[in-house]
Design a protein that fits this description.
- It is a single chain.
- This protein has about 300 residues and is of the alpha+beta class.
- Helices cover about 35% and strands about 15% of the residues.
- A hairpin with a 5-residue loop joins strand 6 and strand 7.
- The model has no long low-confidence stretch (mean pLDDT about 90).
Length: about 300
């Protein structure tokens, strides 16, 4: 972390945490495409905060499924907080959220593809997410060392991939086998005022959809970031006036249509059709993200939104 003697977690937790996240990404030797050209994987992160008791986290149990954990449940289950101490220990809960923007050169390389991702994108997904995982761990460890209950849900034993119900606007596939999870970082970012969803299910932030999300839940009072929208699709021109829909044409497998994103088709394409790409690119994690590159929301909020 860059040295700032006047910045402390106790005096200004929001500024301290923002500085930690931005400095960690800027200074980490892992933030480079070492197997390609040593250029940066991520640009400067966006950081926001959500109130852990925001009603939206409880609404997600209806929208996503009753299995979706609230920030309070994550802390209670992770640290086995007893009923006697719950009011004292968890009187304040915040969710720290960040978005890591993909480097411009990588975004441009993926925008030129039409069937599978570029090498730069594939390595960003593999090695960039490794760095994201380290950031989750280090931030949670820092806060724990300061005496707080802190956990990165994606690194918690509680985190589960689940085959559950679909979103209301999606109407294809088998609803009992629809892939989802019990914690969504994109939905946490939405609560934190950092972006809204697109037709492709990606989160459209001020730096567009070419991002990876991260989050840590902590029993700390941090002023929440203002939420400048009241609709989950505010930044998507398709939902605003049907003036876009380029992600439909960009999807190589027909997983995106006017009813939204079919995650089953998308997953099948990634796991089966693109299996050979994993061998070519020597990666394990994979995702083409063609629908989020080469479109108006790739690197910004579309003007028409």
């Amino acid at each position: 972390m860059s040295e700032n003697k006047h910045l402390t977690l106790e005096k200004d937790p929001a500024a301290f945490i923002k500085e930690f996240i931005k400095s960690f990404v800027a200074e980490s030797p892992e933030n480079k495409l070492h197997l390609i050209d040593d250029s940066p994987i991520w640009e400067e992160p966006l950081v926001g905060f959500a109130d852990g008791e925001d009603p939206l986290f409880y609404e997600y149990k209806k929208i996503i499924g009753d299995f979706h954990l609230t920030p309070r449940e994550i802390l209670e289950k992770t640290f086995a907080v007893t009923n006697n101490s719950i009011d004292r220990e968890l009187s304040n809960i915040s969710v720290i959220c960040w978005a890591l923007p993909v480097a411009k050169r990588t975004v441009q390389s993926n925008a030129k593809r039409d069937n599978w991702p570029s090498l730069r994108w594939a390595h960003t997904r593999q090695y960039g997410e490794m760095l994201n995982g380290i950031l989750r761990r280090e931030l949670a460890s820092l806060l724990t060392a300061k005496g707080y209950f802190a956990v990165a849900p994606f690194r918690s034993p509680l985190y589960r991939h689940i085959h559950g119900p679909r979103y209301p606007r999606q109407d294809s596939g088998d609803p009992t086998r629809y892939p989802t999870s019990n914690w969504s970082e994109r939905h946490a970012l939405y609560v934190a005022g950092m972006g809204t969803f697109g037709l492709h299910d990606g989160l459209i932030t001020s730096r567009g959809t070419a991002i990876r999300a991260g989050s840590v839940v902590v029993n700390m009072k941090i002023p929440p970031t203002p939420r400048p929208y009241n609709s989950p699709y505010k930044y998507c021109p398709f939902f605003t006036d049907k003036s876009c829909g380029m992600c439909i044409d960009r999807c190589p497998t027909g997983a995106i249509g006017i009813n939204g994103h079919d995650k089953i088709k998308c997953d099948m394409y990634g796991h089966v059709t693109l299996a050979q790409c994993r061998v070519w690119y020597e990666v394990e994690r994979f995702g083409c993200a063609l629908c989020m590159t080469g479109v108006p929301c790739t690197s910004k909020i579309p003007p028409k939104a």
